[in-house]
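Q: I'm a student working through a structural biology exercise. My instructor gave each of us a protein and asked us to get a predicted structure, then write a short paragraph describing it. Mine is DHR13 reductase. I'm not confident about reading structure output yet, so if you can add a plain explanation after the tokens, that would really help. Here is the sequence I was given:
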Amino acid sequence: AGIGKCVAMDLARRNARTILACRSRERGQAAVKEIREATGNPAVVLRLLDTGSLASVRAFARAVLQEEPRLDVLVNNAGVTGLPFSITSERLEQTFATNYLGPFLLTNLLLG
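A: Happy to help. First, here is the predicted structure for DHR13 reductase. I'll explain a few features afterward.
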């Protein structure tokens, strides 16, 4: 939704292979369908990612590095605000993990 979806739409319009990294499979599939229909680009795909989970970040990066021949652009756009204080299963504060640690780890893992 929001800025991330607009960026994905623009990349797809430019005929780029576009990977939507979404936490929700249902919302992600709806966005993929909408972007494909609006742009005519069939190379828009969904991969599940929760940047609040470092295990999810590692799995996503591993899959991208194995499946994609190259990665030209990474847009770190995930973020949360206003959540009640909570600790992840990895013993990290949820907002900090989602907004900072997850994207930092993802970027570093994808740099190769």
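A: Here are two points you could use in your paragraph. The chain has a mean pLDDT of 96. The beta strands are 18-22, 44-48. It's a good idea to check both against the output above yourself.
Q: Great, thank you!
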